[in-house]
Request: fold
Amino acid sequence: MRGPVRTGDAGDARIIALIGNPNTGKTTLFNRISGLNHKTSNFAGTTLEARIARVKAGIEGGRDGDLIDLPGVYSIELEQLESRIVREVLAGQLAPRGHAIGVPEVCVVVVDATNLARNLTLVAEVIRRRLPTLVVVNMIDLAQRQGLTIDAHKLGEALGCGVVLTNARTGEGIDQVRIGIREARIPTPVRAVPGGGGGDGATALRVWAEEVFALAAAENTGHCTRCGYDVSALPGRKGKCPECGTPYVRTDISASEATTDRIDRVLMHPVLGVLVFAAVMTGLFWSLFSLAAYPMDWIDAIFGWTTGALHGVLPEGSILGDLLTDGVVAGIGATVIFLPQICLLFFLISLLEDTGYLARAALLMDRVLRPFGLPGHAFVPLLSSHACALPGIMATRAIPDRRERLATILVAPFMTCSARLPVYVLLTGLLFAGRPALAALAFVGCYALGITAAVFSALIARRTILRGRGRPMVMELPSYKLPSLRTALITTYHRGWVFLKNAGTNILMICIALWWLSSYPKVEPPAEAERVRQQVALAQSAGADELPLRGGPDTGRHVSIPGDEGNGPGRVLVHIPVLTVEHATRFADQLEARHQAANSFAGRLGRFIQPVFAPLGYDWQLSIGVLSSFAAREVFVSTMAVVVAGSDDAEDEGVRAQIAGARRDDGVTPVFTRATAWSLLIYYVLAMQCLPTLAVTARESGSWKWAGVQLAWMSGLAYVAAMTVYQVLA
Amino acid sequence: MPTTTLESPESHAPAVPGEPAVALSTLARGQRAVVREARMPADDAALLRAMGLCDCALVTVVRTGEPCVVTVTGVDGATCRCHRVGGCRIGLSRAMAQRLFVSIIS
Reply:
């Protein structure tokens, strides 16, 4: 559990622990205090994220403080990872990585004003620890709307510590929180906090909390809070008491509850609830696919332009130039291109979570996923993985149980992501040329196979390497409310930055390594390319625009000359294609590109490992395609275009035709037979052909071991399935 | 300022100690009950207690079936009876609701 103790830049700053139940607006409050100015780290020995914000000392002096956002817990005493972390931080035994260990000098306990009685049990647990404490009663606006009045002064007296009422969404009361932190003292509650644990202890604590609540809170009974005048019969919700002039807001908590009941009845209905959920998820999924496409295209264009500009400036063929353009810039582009989907997903999830809907959706989907050992929380990450596994895996942070979260991370890449689509298009196009309905059916089958593989892999994982009881499905259902745009934007910024900083660095290094493998060593141009260039030079010197090129690609125009076989009138005519000078030059370039691809380190590796892929029906060309697409699945199509056609324009119809008609070394056997195409399709549905995903898995699981398990399981399953398909069909 | 009463309202007939407990999953929507016992692993029971479903917690069933939803509206203990309208809303799987035993009060 404990990691190495290091003293980072915390210096002698005070440690301020931010504690609270889930759904109390603790993170909103943290964002209000820190803005964008906070750091992220992990609690040593765990993958649980710690966020730390520097709280500046006031103008009257004092010391700066480091506000640590602790995981949301219902009790400090539970045997759950989050509770253990809070317990150890409060005991001065644990700190975020890079921060000095120490007992917090202030505990800020955030409680939900609409659920104060239950939240006060956590306050009691903190009071027992005898640390300077400040209680922040958040969402006070919602409580007032429900007709609940909380007297901060009375609550402070009952608890014996500072109490601040806030609305973190609007920023109301945040300045008082800063002052309260400075003035926090060890609580001296009017009624002593009962000790002991277990069932009786919990009940005693709850009774204590109810008593404190009763001292400090009042439900609106339809009477003036000052003089007791009955305002229930007066017109309008708001007004002034005719007796004493005190403003009143007449609310009815029963009505508020009834509204929540009505909404819940729809959203959690076995049929209606699922329909609403399907509609919401369709919207989310559509947004990820379509809305994110625009910024992704812009990023692609910007990096394409940058690469072109650098090519123009840097000396052609230099290692530095190639490294900068095809390695570094392409690598950064390959990282940044994921940002729109990641940001959009977290923005939308944050909005949904804030409304209170996501908790209900998780509860609803639990019965669907539970038989496979996954919790209802796993649904959104798995669905998001259909756009891209990276944001999907990052979204698993919402899953509280470690084993269930790991299982979801491991199987998320089985979902058909957008990077697989070009491969599916190519292969289904080859398999069902001119039969779009069948191609579409095969597409749907690929999606279904990915989902099936995911849920059954999860089941296997949960019964073997991740064996153990999951958390019981018990969830607090927060009140419905309008989402906070500010919180969503800050969360989005934060998630995007974490991705760039951590996973992005790995992805960049991987891209540079793969660029080097596929670009080096530089080889001499093939003799045939030299011959073509010589003929082009001759034609240009003679002022011709066209030239006959023996062995050139079929252009539909040719010259016929007598061949070497036969004599006299019986001589056989040979048709030689006629190419324009430009076309012939391009043909020479393609020959060189093919030769370079085949003789690069990646090409040599492809030839070397071809025997491994032989049972799947792949020749050396397909082996290079599979190997190079290990960086990203869509690279398979462009690699095949280079290896087979010598062009990296895989969208070109001519190049596609060349890929479809490609032959093996014997010049007769097609590269893509029906058996190899099916085998490849199955392979790409199941295989872990995405290094960025592995990098994110390692980051989110806290260990490369899990990335290795993911790679071995998915690749092994893909290999066996593809081999079976090939052997049956061949 | 009127304060929340610690007495149970008239409509709330206190549960009789020793009254046979039934599984929460058997209650109908709108029924109120007092939590008596959680027959489940200690960790799960501790989580329920921390979330407010401790012994003596007053609950009102909002939704039956899968999932079951209740609101925790107060406590009905030996020294303290407190009932409020509203309170925290908790959703449980049917399996959990089958293991949480309550005494029906209305």
